[in-house]
Amino acid sequence: MAEPYDRRNVLCGLAAMAAVCAPARSWAANPLKSVTAPADALDAYIRLRMDREHIPGLSLAIVKDGKPIAIKGYGYADLEWNVPAGVQTVYQIGSMSKQFTSAAILILAQDNKLGLDDIIGKYIDGAPQTWNAITVRHLLTHTSGLPLEGLPATEKTFFADYTKDDLITSAKALSLLSPPGTKYRYGNLDYDLLAIIIEKVSGVSYAEFLQQRIFGPLRMTSTRVNDRRAIIANRAQAYLWDHNSLQKCEPQVSPTRYYGSASLMSTVMDLAKWDASLYTDRILNAASRKAMWTPTTVADGTVTAYGFGWELSSVKGHARLYHTGAMDGFVGNISRFVDDRLTIIVLTNQSGLSNPLRIATGVARLYIPAIRPAIQGGQPARVYVDKTVMASAAGRYEYWRGFMLTLTPGKGVLLGQLPVGEADDYVPVSTTAFWQAEEGIQLTVVKTPAGEVTGLVVRQDDGSERTIPRIGPLFDALKLQPDPDPKRSQRIEAALIAIVQGGKAVADDPGIAPGMKTDSGAGTADFAGMRACTFLAEENVVGRGIERHGAEVSRVLYYRMNMDKLTGNLLVYVTADGLLTDYDIVDN
Protein backbone atom coordinates (compact mmCIF):
# COMPACT_ATOMS: atom_id res chain seq x y z
CA MET A 1 0.00 0.00 0.00
CA ALA A 2 2.96 2.27 0.41
CA GLU A 3 3.69 2.32 -3.32
CA PRO A 4 2.37 5.32 -5.27
CA TYR A 5 0.55 3.01 -7.67
CA ASP A 6 -1.80 0.07 -7.55
CA ARG A 7 -0.03 -3.21 -6.73
CA ARG A 8 -1.74 -5.13 -9.54
CA ASN A 9 -0.95 -2.32 -11.96
CA VAL A 10 2.75 -2.89 -11.35
CA LEU A 11 2.72 -6.66 -10.99
CA CYS A 12 0.42 -7.25 -13.93
CA GLY A 13 0.39 -3.78 -15.01
CA LEU A 14 5.17 -4.88 -14.64
CA ALA A 15 13.70 -16.81 -21.16
CA ALA A 16 16.44 -17.70 -19.02
CA MET A 17 19.75 -16.32 -20.24
CA ALA A 18 23.15 -17.00 -18.74
CA ALA A 19 25.28 -14.10 -17.58
CA VAL A 20 28.36 -14.13 -19.78
CA CYS A 21 30.69 -11.76 -17.98
CA ALA A 22 31.35 -10.07 -14.66
CA PRO A 23 28.71 -7.57 -13.53
CA ALA A 24 29.10 -3.82 -13.66
CA ARG A 25 31.09 -3.73 -10.41
CA SER A 26 34.26 -4.00 -12.53
CA TRP A 27 33.62 -0.70 -14.31
CA ALA A 28 34.83 1.50 -11.50
CA ALA A 29 38.08 -0.42 -11.25
CA ASN A 30 38.61 -0.53 -15.04
CA PRO A 31 36.72 2.42 -16.53
CA LEU A 32 36.26 2.44 -20.29
CA LYS A 33 38.31 5.18 -21.90
CA SER A 34 35.86 5.86 -24.72
CA VAL A 35 32.24 7.00 -24.72
CA THR A 36 31.60 4.29 -27.31
CA ALA A 37 30.71 1.08 -25.51
CA PRO A 38 31.87 -2.21 -27.02
CA ALA A 39 28.91 -4.26 -28.25
CA ASP A 40 29.95 -7.30 -26.22
CA ALA A 41 30.03 -5.25 -22.99
CA LEU A 42 26.56 -3.88 -23.73
CA ASP A 43 25.14 -7.29 -24.60
CA ALA A 44 26.72 -8.87 -21.53
CA TYR A 45 25.25 -6.23 -19.22
CA ILE A 46 21.76 -6.55 -20.71
CA ARG A 47 21.84 -10.34 -20.49
CA LEU A 48 23.08 -10.15 -16.91
CA ARG A 49 20.18 -7.91 -15.89
CA MET A 50 17.66 -10.03 -17.79
CA ASP A 51 18.92 -13.14 -16.08
CA ARG A 52 18.84 -11.61 -12.60
CA GLU A 53 15.46 -9.93 -13.13
CA HIS A 54 13.87 -12.88 -15.00
CA ILE A 55 12.93 -10.70 -17.96
CA PRO A 56 11.59 -12.71 -20.95
CA GLY A 57 12.04 -9.97 -23.55
CA LEU A 58 13.69 -6.56 -23.73
CA SER A 59 14.05 -3.98 -26.48
CA LEU A 60 16.71 -1.28 -26.24
CA ALA A 61 17.50 1.93 -28.08
CA ILE A 62 20.57 4.08 -27.44
CA VAL A 63 20.31 7.48 -29.07
CA LYS A 64 23.13 10.02 -29.36
CA ASP A 65 22.38 13.53 -30.65
CA GLY A 66 18.98 12.32 -31.83
CA LYS A 67 20.43 9.43 -33.88
CA PRO A 68 20.28 5.75 -32.84
CA ILE A 69 23.73 4.29 -32.26
CA ALA A 70 22.43 0.93 -30.97
CA ILE A 71 18.91 -0.43 -31.29
CA LYS A 72 18.10 -4.10 -30.78
CA GLY A 73 16.04 -6.72 -29.03
CA TYR A 74 16.95 -9.44 -26.55
CA GLY A 75 15.08 -12.53 -25.45
CA TYR A 76 11.49 -13.24 -26.38
CA ALA A 77 8.37 -11.21 -27.02
CA ASP A 78 6.38 -14.46 -26.63
CA LEU A 79 7.80 -17.49 -24.86
CA GLU A 80 5.14 -19.97 -25.96
CA TRP A 81 5.75 -19.27 -29.65
CA ASN A 82 9.48 -18.47 -29.31
CA VAL A 83 8.97 -15.06 -30.93
CA PRO A 84 12.11 -12.97 -30.48
CA ALA A 85 11.90 -9.46 -29.06
CA GLY A 86 13.05 -6.89 -31.61
CA VAL A 87 13.15 -3.21 -32.40
CA GLN A 88 9.56 -3.31 -33.69
CA THR A 89 8.13 -5.27 -30.75
CA VAL A 90 5.13 -3.39 -29.35
CA TYR A 91 4.92 -2.95 -25.58
CA GLN A 92 2.50 -1.15 -23.33
CA ILE A 93 4.41 1.85 -21.96
CA GLY A 94 2.24 2.69 -18.91
CA SER A 95 2.97 6.09 -17.40
CA MET A 96 5.48 6.94 -20.10
CA SER A 97 2.23 7.94 -21.84
CA LYS A 98 2.09 11.04 -19.65
CA GLN A 99 4.81 12.82 -21.66
CA PHE A 100 2.64 12.55 -24.76
CA THR A 101 -0.44 13.82 -22.93
CA SER A 102 1.54 16.79 -21.66
CA ALA A 103 2.92 17.41 -25.15
CA ALA A 104 -0.62 17.43 -26.55
CA ILE A 105 -1.65 20.05 -24.00
CA LEU A 106 1.39 22.17 -24.89
CA ILE A 107 0.53 21.91 -28.60
CA LEU A 108 -2.95 23.27 -27.85
CA ALA A 109 -1.34 26.07 -25.84
CA GLN A 110 0.97 26.82 -28.79
CA ASP A 111 -2.16 27.00 -30.95
CA ASN A 112 -3.65 29.50 -28.46
CA LYS A 113 -6.58 27.17 -27.87
CA LEU A 114 -6.08 26.91 -24.11
CA GLY A 115 -3.98 28.45 -21.35
CA LEU A 116 -1.99 26.45 -18.84
CA ASP A 117 -3.42 28.58 -16.04
CA ASP A 118 -7.02 28.16 -17.17
CA ILE A 119 -9.38 26.67 -14.58
CA ILE A 120 -10.25 23.13 -15.65
CA GLY A 121 -13.95 23.80 -15.14
CA LYS A 122 -13.73 25.81 -18.35
CA TYR A 123 -13.33 22.53 -20.22
CA ILE A 124 -15.04 19.95 -18.01
CA ASP A 125 -18.80 20.40 -17.81
CA GLY A 126 -20.34 20.32 -14.37
CA ALA A 127 -17.02 20.49 -12.53
CA PRO A 128 -17.67 20.49 -8.77
CA GLN A 129 -17.03 23.58 -6.67
CA THR A 130 -14.00 21.89 -5.11
CA TRP A 131 -12.31 22.08 -8.55
CA ASN A 132 -12.79 25.84 -8.88
CA ALA A 133 -9.11 26.57 -8.15
CA ILE A 134 -7.60 23.67 -10.13
CA THR A 135 -5.78 24.76 -13.28
CA VAL A 136 -4.47 22.85 -16.28
CA ARG A 137 -0.97 23.46 -14.91
CA HIS A 138 -1.93 21.82 -11.60
CA LEU A 139 -2.94 18.67 -13.49
CA LEU A 140 0.29 18.66 -15.50
CA THR A 141 2.44 18.97 -12.37
CA HIS A 142 0.48 16.66 -10.05
CA THR A 143 -0.32 19.54 -7.69
CA SER A 144 -4.10 19.54 -8.17
CA GLY A 145 -4.85 17.94 -4.82
CA LEU A 146 -6.88 15.22 -6.55
CA PRO A 147 -6.54 11.57 -5.47
CA LEU A 148 -4.30 9.08 -7.25
CA GLU A 149 -7.11 7.35 -9.14
CA GLY A 150 -10.48 8.50 -10.42
CA LEU A 151 -12.12 5.07 -10.61
CA PRO A 152 -12.73 2.40 -7.95
CA ALA A 153 -10.18 -0.42 -7.78
CA THR A 154 -11.95 -3.44 -6.37
CA GLU A 155 -11.53 -7.02 -7.56
CA LYS A 156 -14.76 -6.72 -9.57
CA THR A 157 -14.06 -3.30 -11.09
CA PHE A 158 -10.34 -3.35 -11.81
CA PHE A 159 -10.59 -5.05 -15.20
CA ALA A 160 -13.82 -3.41 -16.37
CA ASP A 161 -14.16 -1.03 -19.31
CA TYR A 162 -15.18 2.53 -18.56
CA THR A 163 -16.51 5.48 -20.51
CA LYS A 164 -15.20 8.99 -20.06
CA ASP A 165 -18.51 9.87 -18.41
CA ASP A 166 -17.89 7.07 -15.88
CA LEU A 167 -14.50 8.58 -15.08
CA ILE A 168 -15.78 12.12 -14.71
CA THR A 169 -18.76 11.07 -12.59
CA SER A 170 -16.54 9.05 -10.27
CA ALA A 171 -13.88 11.76 -10.04
CA LYS A 172 -16.39 14.51 -9.23
CA ALA A 173 -17.45 12.64 -6.09
CA LEU A 174 -13.91 12.46 -4.67
CA SER A 175 -12.63 14.85 -2.03
CA LEU A 176 -9.44 16.82 -2.54
CA LEU A 177 -6.41 15.58 -0.60
CA SER A 178 -4.93 19.09 -0.37
CA PRO A 179 -5.67 22.59 -1.72
CA PRO A 180 -4.58 23.00 -5.35
CA GLY A 181 -0.99 24.15 -5.76
CA THR A 182 0.10 23.30 -2.22
CA LYS A 183 1.47 19.75 -2.51
CA TYR A 184 2.96 17.46 -5.14
CA ARG A 185 1.25 14.07 -5.21
CA TYR A 186 1.84 11.82 -8.20
CA GLY A 187 -1.32 10.34 -9.65
CA ASN A 188 -3.14 9.09 -12.72
CA LEU A 189 -6.39 11.03 -12.41
CA ASP A 190 -4.64 14.32 -13.26
CA TYR A 191 -3.60 13.01 -16.68
CA ASP A 192 -6.87 11.21 -17.34
CA LEU A 193 -8.61 14.56 -16.97
CA LEU A 194 -6.03 16.17 -19.26
CA ALA A 195 -7.00 13.68 -22.00
CA ILE A 196 -10.63 14.74 -21.62
CA ILE A 197 -9.59 18.40 -21.88
CA ILE A 198 -7.62 17.60 -25.06
CA GLU A 199 -10.75 16.13 -26.60
CA LYS A 200 -12.94 19.03 -25.54
CA VAL A 201 -10.59 21.67 -26.94
CA SER A 202 -9.51 19.88 -30.12
CA GLY A 203 -12.85 18.41 -31.09
CA VAL A 204 -11.33 15.00 -31.84
CA SER A 205 -10.55 11.98 -29.70
CA TYR A 206 -7.39 11.77 -27.61
CA ALA A 207 -6.10 9.01 -29.89
CA GLU A 208 -6.85 11.00 -33.03
CA PHE A 209 -5.16 14.14 -31.72
CA LEU A 210 -1.97 12.29 -30.81
CA GLN A 211 -1.95 10.62 -34.22
CA GLN A 212 -2.54 13.88 -36.10
CA ARG A 213 -0.12 16.08 -34.21
CA ILE A 214 2.63 13.76 -32.89
CA PHE A 215 2.67 10.16 -34.11
CA GLY A 216 1.82 10.89 -37.76
CA PRO A 217 4.29 13.74 -38.30
CA LEU A 218 7.10 11.73 -36.65
CA ARG A 219 6.19 8.51 -38.48
CA MET A 220 5.74 6.69 -35.18
CA THR A 221 3.83 4.00 -37.02
CA SER A 222 3.51 1.51 -34.15
CA THR A 223 2.48 3.93 -31.37
CA ARG A 224 -1.20 4.04 -30.49
CA VAL A 225 -3.77 3.87 -27.73
CA ASN A 226 -4.02 0.27 -26.55
CA ASP A 227 -7.03 -1.88 -27.37
CA ARG A 228 -6.84 -5.20 -25.58
CA ARG A 229 -9.24 -6.83 -28.08
CA ALA A 230 -7.51 -5.61 -31.25
CA ILE A 231 -5.04 -7.62 -33.31
CA ILE A 232 -1.87 -5.53 -33.12
CA ALA A 233 1.13 -6.60 -35.16
CA ASN A 234 4.24 -7.42 -33.11
CA ARG A 235 2.41 -7.08 -29.79
CA ALA A 236 4.47 -8.62 -26.96
CA GLN A 237 2.94 -11.06 -24.51
CA ALA A 238 2.77 -9.73 -20.95
CA TYR A 239 4.38 -11.69 -18.12
CA LEU A 240 4.33 -11.43 -14.35
CA TRP A 241 7.01 -12.50 -11.87
CA ASP A 242 5.10 -13.49 -8.75
CA HIS A 243 5.82 -15.95 -5.95
CA ASN A 244 9.20 -16.76 -7.51
CA SER A 245 7.78 -17.88 -10.84
CA LEU A 246 7.08 -16.44 -14.27
CA GLN A 247 3.49 -16.54 -15.51
CA LYS A 248 1.35 -14.93 -18.16
CA CYS A 249 -0.22 -11.71 -16.96
CA GLU A 250 -3.91 -12.14 -17.51
CA PRO A 251 -6.54 -10.75 -17.43
CA GLN A 252 -5.42 -7.37 -18.76
CA VAL A 253 -6.43 -4.04 -17.22
CA SER A 254 -8.58 -2.01 -19.61
CA PRO A 255 -6.81 1.00 -21.16
CA THR A 256 -10.05 2.92 -20.58
CA ARG A 257 -9.14 2.94 -16.91
CA TYR A 258 -5.97 5.00 -17.50
CA TYR A 259 -7.05 7.01 -20.53
CA GLY A 260 -4.55 9.87 -20.54
CA SER A 261 -2.18 8.55 -17.91
CA ALA A 262 -1.09 5.11 -19.12
CA SER A 263 -2.97 3.88 -22.20
CA LEU A 264 -0.32 3.96 -24.94
CA MET A 265 1.69 1.26 -26.69
CA SER A 266 4.95 1.84 -28.54
CA THR A 267 8.30 0.49 -29.70
CA VAL A 268 11.87 1.55 -29.00
CA MET A 269 12.17 2.56 -32.66
CA ASP A 270 9.22 4.94 -32.36
CA LEU A 271 10.39 6.34 -29.04
CA ALA A 272 13.80 7.05 -30.58
CA LYS A 273 12.01 9.19 -33.19
CA TRP A 274 10.20 10.99 -30.38
CA ASP A 275 13.49 11.62 -28.59
CA ALA A 276 15.04 13.08 -31.77
CA SER A 277 12.11 15.49 -32.13
CA LEU A 278 12.76 16.89 -28.65
CA TYR A 279 15.98 18.52 -29.88
CA THR A 280 13.96 20.45 -32.47
CA ASP A 281 10.87 22.66 -32.86
CA ARG A 282 9.14 20.08 -35.01
CA ILE A 283 6.45 19.22 -32.44
CA LEU A 284 7.12 21.49 -29.46
CA ASN A 285 8.74 24.89 -29.64
CA ALA A 286 11.61 25.90 -27.37
CA ALA A 287 9.32 27.65 -24.88
CA SER A 288 7.11 24.56 -24.56
CA ARG A 289 10.08 22.26 -24.08
CA LYS A 290 11.51 24.54 -21.41
CA ALA A 291 8.17 24.61 -19.59
CA MET A 292 7.87 20.81 -19.81
CA TRP A 293 11.27 20.34 -18.16
CA THR A 294 11.05 23.04 -15.48
CA PRO A 295 10.56 21.82 -11.89
CA THR A 296 7.39 22.86 -10.13
CA THR A 297 7.31 25.14 -7.10
CA VAL A 298 4.37 24.68 -4.74
CA ALA A 299 2.81 27.29 -2.48
CA ASP A 300 5.28 26.95 0.40
CA GLY A 301 8.29 27.34 -1.91
CA THR A 302 9.12 23.64 -2.10
CA VAL A 303 10.54 22.70 -5.50
CA THR A 304 9.42 19.31 -6.82
CA ALA A 305 11.31 16.99 -9.15
CA TYR A 306 8.53 16.85 -11.73
CA GLY A 307 7.81 18.98 -14.79
CA PHE A 308 5.02 18.19 -17.27
CA GLY A 309 5.02 14.41 -17.71
CA TRP A 310 8.76 14.11 -16.99
CA GLU A 311 10.72 13.45 -13.83
CA LEU A 312 13.75 15.69 -13.35
CA SER A 313 16.95 14.43 -11.74
CA SER A 314 20.70 14.15 -12.15
CA VAL A 315 23.28 11.39 -11.90
CA LYS A 316 26.57 12.64 -10.46
CA GLY A 317 25.87 16.11 -11.78
CA HIS A 318 24.67 15.00 -15.22
CA ALA A 319 21.09 16.16 -15.80
CA ARG A 320 18.57 13.40 -16.53
CA LEU A 321 14.97 13.72 -17.73
CA TYR A 322 13.15 10.44 -17.41
CA HIS A 323 9.92 8.58 -16.84
CA THR A 324 9.13 4.97 -16.05
CA GLY A 325 5.89 3.25 -16.99
CA ALA A 326 4.39 0.06 -15.54
CA MET A 327 1.22 -1.55 -16.84
CA ASP A 328 -0.16 -5.04 -17.28
CA GLY A 329 3.03 -7.08 -17.28
CA PHE A 330 5.13 -4.39 -18.97
CA VAL A 331 7.67 -1.97 -17.52
CA GLY A 332 9.64 0.58 -19.51
CA ASN A 333 11.82 3.64 -19.11
CA ILE A 334 13.13 6.52 -21.16
CA SER A 335 16.13 8.35 -19.68
CA ARG A 336 17.47 11.45 -21.47
CA PHE A 337 20.92 12.52 -20.26
CA VAL A 338 20.55 15.96 -21.77
CA ASP A 339 24.01 17.30 -20.84
CA ASP A 340 25.48 14.40 -22.79
CA ARG A 341 22.79 14.33 -25.52
CA LEU A 342 22.41 10.61 -24.81
CA THR A 343 19.08 8.82 -24.42
CA ILE A 344 18.50 5.25 -23.26
CA ILE A 345 15.12 3.61 -23.94
CA VAL A 346 14.31 0.24 -22.34
CA LEU A 347 11.04 -1.67 -22.77
CA THR A 348 10.36 -5.04 -21.11
CA ASN A 349 7.49 -7.52 -21.01
CA GLN A 350 7.63 -8.52 -17.36
CA SER A 351 6.52 -6.77 -14.21
CA GLY A 352 7.01 -7.65 -10.59
CA LEU A 353 10.79 -7.76 -10.81
CA SER A 354 12.09 -5.91 -13.88
CA ASN A 355 13.66 -2.50 -13.30
CA PRO A 356 14.22 -0.65 -16.60
CA LEU A 357 15.30 2.56 -14.84
CA ARG A 358 18.21 0.70 -13.29
CA ILE A 359 19.01 -0.95 -16.62
CA ALA A 360 18.91 2.40 -18.45
CA THR A 361 21.25 3.91 -15.87
CA GLY A 362 23.61 0.94 -16.16
CA VAL A 363 23.69 1.25 -19.96
CA ALA A 364 24.33 5.00 -19.69
CA ARG A 365 27.35 4.27 -17.48
CA LEU A 366 28.90 2.34 -20.36
CA TYR A 367 28.79 5.50 -22.46
CA ILE A 368 29.36 8.22 -19.85
CA PRO A 369 32.39 7.31 -17.68
CA ALA A 370 31.81 10.27 -15.36
CA ILE A 371 28.59 8.77 -13.95
CA ARG A 372 30.12 5.42 -12.99
CA PRO A 373 30.44 4.71 -9.25
CA ALA A 374 33.60 5.98 -7.62
CA ILE A 375 34.45 3.56 -4.85
CA GLN A 376 34.95 5.63 -1.70
CA GLY A 377 38.49 5.11 -0.45
CA GLY A 378 39.03 2.17 -2.79
CA GLN A 379 37.12 -1.08 -3.08
CA PRO A 380 36.45 -2.49 0.41
CA ALA A 381 37.86 -5.90 1.18
CA ARG A 382 35.31 -8.63 1.72
CA VAL A 383 35.28 -10.31 5.11
CA TYR A 384 33.61 -13.49 6.27
CA VAL A 385 31.24 -13.12 9.20
CA ASP A 386 29.21 -15.45 11.35
CA LYS A 387 25.63 -16.25 10.35
CA THR A 388 24.40 -14.50 13.48
CA VAL A 389 25.78 -11.21 12.12
CA MET A 390 23.69 -11.66 8.97
CA ALA A 391 20.64 -12.65 10.98
CA SER A 392 20.83 -9.59 13.24
CA ALA A 393 21.00 -7.20 10.27
CA ALA A 394 18.21 -8.96 8.35
CA GLY A 395 14.80 -7.33 8.42
CA ARG A 396 12.85 -4.47 6.91
CA TYR A 397 13.91 -0.83 6.77
CA GLU A 398 12.21 2.37 5.61
CA TYR A 399 14.49 3.16 2.64
CA TRP A 400 12.38 6.15 1.60
CA ARG A 401 9.05 7.19 3.01
CA GLY A 402 6.70 4.32 2.24
CA PHE A 403 9.40 2.45 0.28
CA MET A 404 10.88 -0.58 2.05
CA LEU A 405 14.27 -2.21 1.84
CA THR A 406 14.18 -5.89 2.84
CA LEU A 407 17.44 -7.57 3.87
CA THR A 408 17.49 -11.38 3.81
CA PRO A 409 20.45 -13.65 4.62
CA GLY A 410 21.93 -15.27 1.49
CA LYS A 411 25.00 -17.40 0.82
CA GLY A 412 27.66 -15.27 2.44
CA VAL A 413 25.81 -12.04 1.59
CA LEU A 414 22.76 -10.05 2.54
CA LEU A 415 20.17 -9.87 -0.22
CA GLY A 416 18.77 -6.34 -0.42
CA GLN A 417 15.31 -6.13 -2.02
CA LEU A 418 13.45 -2.93 -2.88
CA PRO A 419 9.83 -3.06 -4.14
CA VAL A 420 11.04 -2.76 -7.75
CA GLY A 421 13.73 -4.99 -9.21
CA GLU A 422 15.58 -8.07 -8.08
CA ALA A 423 17.57 -8.51 -4.88
CA ASP A 424 21.12 -7.14 -4.80
CA ASP A 425 24.09 -8.78 -3.11
CA TYR A 426 25.47 -6.78 -0.18
CA VAL A 427 28.78 -8.35 0.76
CA PRO A 428 30.09 -8.01 4.33
CA VAL A 429 33.08 -5.68 4.64
CA SER A 430 33.03 -5.67 8.45
CA THR A 431 30.85 -7.14 11.17
CA THR A 432 28.48 -4.17 10.83
CA ALA A 433 28.86 -2.98 7.21
CA PHE A 434 27.74 -4.41 3.86
CA TRP A 435 28.62 -3.19 0.37
CA GLN A 436 26.77 -3.34 -2.98
CA ALA A 437 29.15 -3.07 -5.90
CA GLU A 438 27.18 -1.95 -8.93
CA GLU A 439 25.81 1.22 -7.32
CA GLY A 440 28.65 1.70 -4.82
CA ILE A 441 26.27 1.70 -1.83
CA GLN A 442 27.31 0.73 1.70
CA LEU A 443 24.94 -0.16 4.55
CA THR A 444 26.14 0.09 8.15
CA VAL A 445 24.05 -1.31 10.99
CA VAL A 446 22.93 1.10 13.74
CA LYS A 447 22.52 -0.41 17.21
CA THR A 448 21.53 0.80 20.65
CA PRO A 449 24.02 0.32 23.54
CA ALA A 450 22.02 -2.80 24.39
CA GLY A 451 22.64 -4.23 20.92
CA GLU A 452 19.18 -3.70 19.43
CA VAL A 453 19.27 -2.92 15.69
CA THR A 454 17.30 0.27 15.06
CA GLY A 455 18.38 1.29 11.58
CA LEU A 456 21.02 1.52 8.89
CA VAL A 457 23.38 4.23 7.70
CA VAL A 458 23.15 4.31 3.91
CA ARG A 459 26.26 5.74 2.21
CA GLN A 460 25.73 6.58 -1.43
CA ASP A 461 28.35 6.48 -4.15
CA ASP A 462 28.91 10.25 -3.84
CA GLY A 463 29.83 9.89 -0.16
CA SER A 464 26.54 11.29 1.17
CA GLU A 465 25.01 9.49 4.13
CA ARG A 466 21.59 9.18 5.69
CA THR A 467 20.15 7.00 8.44
CA ILE A 468 17.05 4.92 7.74
CA PRO A 469 14.90 3.35 10.49
CA ARG A 470 14.27 -0.34 11.02
CA ILE A 471 10.66 -1.42 10.59
CA GLY A 472 11.12 -4.85 12.12
CA PRO A 473 12.25 -8.46 11.60
CA LEU A 474 11.27 -10.85 8.83
CA PHE A 475 8.32 -13.14 9.42
CA ASP A 476 10.48 -16.26 9.67
CA ALA A 477 12.49 -14.59 12.46
CA LEU A 478 9.51 -13.55 14.58
CA LYS A 479 9.18 -14.44 18.23
CA LEU A 480 5.48 -15.20 18.40
CA GLN A 481 3.50 -13.20 20.96
CA PRO A 482 -0.02 -13.42 22.34
CA ASP A 483 -2.28 -10.67 21.03
CA PRO A 484 -2.11 -7.90 23.68
CA ASP A 485 -5.24 -6.20 22.32
CA PRO A 486 -7.69 -8.52 20.51
CA LYS A 487 -10.20 -5.68 20.12
CA ARG A 488 -7.56 -3.70 18.23
CA SER A 489 -7.14 -6.64 15.86
CA GLN A 490 -10.90 -6.74 15.33
CA ARG A 491 -10.89 -3.03 14.48
CA ILE A 492 -8.02 -3.55 12.05
CA GLU A 493 -9.78 -6.42 10.31
CA ALA A 494 -12.90 -4.27 9.95
CA ALA A 495 -10.77 -1.42 8.58
CA LEU A 496 -9.22 -3.70 5.96
CA ILE A 497 -12.67 -4.78 4.80
CA ALA A 498 -13.67 -1.11 4.56
CA ILE A 499 -10.55 -0.38 2.48
CA VAL A 500 -11.63 -3.07 0.01
CA GLN A 501 -14.98 -1.32 -0.40
CA GLY A 502 -13.56 2.21 -0.54
CA GLY A 503 -15.69 5.35 -0.62
CA LYS A 504 -18.13 5.78 2.23
CA ALA A 505 -17.00 2.60 3.99
CA VAL A 506 -13.50 4.08 4.39
CA ALA A 507 -14.78 7.53 5.31
CA ASP A 508 -17.03 6.14 8.06
CA ASP A 509 -14.58 3.64 9.59
CA PRO A 510 -13.30 4.94 12.96
CA GLY A 511 -10.22 2.70 12.89
CA ILE A 512 -8.52 4.30 9.86
CA ALA A 513 -6.19 7.29 10.22
CA PRO A 514 -7.24 10.49 8.35
CA GLY A 515 -4.40 10.39 5.82
CA MET A 516 -5.06 6.75 5.05
CA LYS A 517 -8.75 7.53 4.56
CA THR A 518 -7.86 10.21 2.06
CA ASP A 519 -5.58 7.92 0.06
CA SER A 520 -7.79 4.79 0.17
CA GLY A 521 -11.07 6.14 -1.15
CA ALA A 522 -10.88 4.27 -4.46
CA GLY A 523 -10.91 0.82 -2.84
CA THR A 524 -8.56 -2.11 -3.45
CA ALA A 525 -8.60 -5.79 -4.34
CA ASP A 526 -5.79 -6.58 -1.89
CA PHE A 527 -8.03 -8.18 0.72
CA ALA A 528 -10.74 -9.65 -1.47
CA GLY A 529 -11.45 -13.16 -0.22
CA MET A 530 -9.89 -12.55 3.19
CA ARG A 531 -11.44 -14.78 5.84
CA ALA A 532 -9.43 -13.88 8.92
CA CYS A 533 -6.23 -12.31 10.23
CA THR A 534 -4.19 -14.04 12.92
CA PHE A 535 -1.98 -11.88 15.13
CA LEU A 536 1.65 -13.02 15.33
CA ALA A 537 3.70 -10.23 16.89
CA GLU A 538 4.22 -6.48 17.13
CA GLU A 539 7.25 -4.19 16.89
CA ASN A 540 7.53 -0.99 18.91
CA VAL A 541 8.90 1.68 16.54
CA VAL A 542 8.14 4.80 18.59
CA GLY A 543 10.71 7.50 17.88
CA ARG A 544 12.21 5.88 14.79
CA GLY A 545 10.66 8.43 12.47
CA ILE A 546 8.56 6.07 10.38
CA GLU A 547 5.67 7.97 8.80
CA ARG A 548 2.90 6.68 6.56
CA HIS A 549 0.17 8.77 4.94
CA GLY A 550 1.06 11.77 7.07
CA ALA A 551 0.90 10.01 10.45
CA GLU A 552 3.73 8.82 12.69
CA VAL A 553 3.84 5.06 13.10
CA SER A 554 3.97 3.78 16.67
CA ARG A 555 3.59 0.03 16.21
CA VAL A 556 4.08 -2.40 13.34
CA LEU A 557 1.76 -5.40 13.70
CA TYR A 558 2.42 -8.78 12.09
CA TYR A 559 -0.56 -10.85 10.90
CA ARG A 560 -1.06 -14.04 8.93
CA MET A 561 -3.94 -13.59 6.49
CA ASN A 562 -6.21 -16.49 5.57
CA MET A 563 -7.58 -15.96 2.07
CA ASP A 564 -9.96 -18.07 -0.01
CA LYS A 565 -7.14 -19.89 -1.81
CA LEU A 566 -3.94 -19.03 0.03
CA THR A 567 -2.34 -17.47 3.06
CA GLY A 568 -0.33 -14.26 3.16
CA ASN A 569 1.82 -12.15 5.47
CA LEU A 570 0.56 -8.72 6.41
CA LEU A 571 2.30 -5.77 8.07
CA VAL A 572 -0.05 -3.22 9.58
CA TYR A 573 1.20 0.23 10.61
CA VAL A 574 -0.71 1.87 13.44
CA THR A 575 -0.52 5.23 15.18
CA ALA A 576 -0.12 5.83 18.90
CA ASP A 577 -3.91 5.86 19.24
CA GLY A 578 -4.26 2.57 17.40
CA LEU A 579 -5.44 3.81 14.00
CA LEU A 580 -4.43 1.97 10.85
CA THR A 581 -2.29 4.29 8.73
CA ASP A 582 -0.86 1.83 6.17
CA TYR A 583 -0.20 -1.81 5.37
CA ASP A 584 2.17 -3.97 3.32
CA ILE A 585 1.60 -7.48 2.01
CA VAL A 586 4.94 -9.33 1.99
CA ASP A 587 6.36 -12.78 1.27
CA ASN A 588 8.44 -13.08 4.46
User: How many strands appear in the DSSP assignment?
Assistant: 27
Q: What level of helicity do the residues show? A: 10-25%
Query: What is the percentage of strand-forming residues?
Result: 25-35%
Q: State the name of the first-level CATH class of the largest domain.
A: Alpha Beta
Number of domains: 3
Trace the largest sheet across and list its strands: 14-15-16-17-18-19-20-21
What's the story with the biggest beta sheet?
Answer: 8 strands, antiparallel, barrel
Roughly what is the average pLDDT, rounded to an integer?
Answer: 89
Outline the structure in words.
This protein has 3 domains: 7-13 and 92-371, DD-peptidase/beta-lactamase superfamily (Beta-lactamase, 3-Layer(aba) Sandwich), CATH 3.40.710.10; 387-472, Beta Barrel (Lipocalin), CATH 2.40.128; 486-586. Helix 3 runs antiparallel to helix 11 and helix 4 packs parallel to helix 7 (189-202). Residues 1-35 have low confidence and may be disordered. The radius of gyration is 24 Å and the shape is globular. The chain has 588 residues and is α+β, with helices and mostly antiparallel strands. Strand 15 and strand 16 form a beta hairpin. Helices cover 23% and strands 27% of the residues. The strands form 6 sheets. An 8-stranded antiparallel β-barrel has the order 14-15-16-17-18-19-20-21. The chain has a 7-stranded antiparallel beta sheet with strand order 3-2-1-12-11-10-9, sandwiched between helices. The chain has 15 helices and 27 strands. The two termini are 16 Å apart.
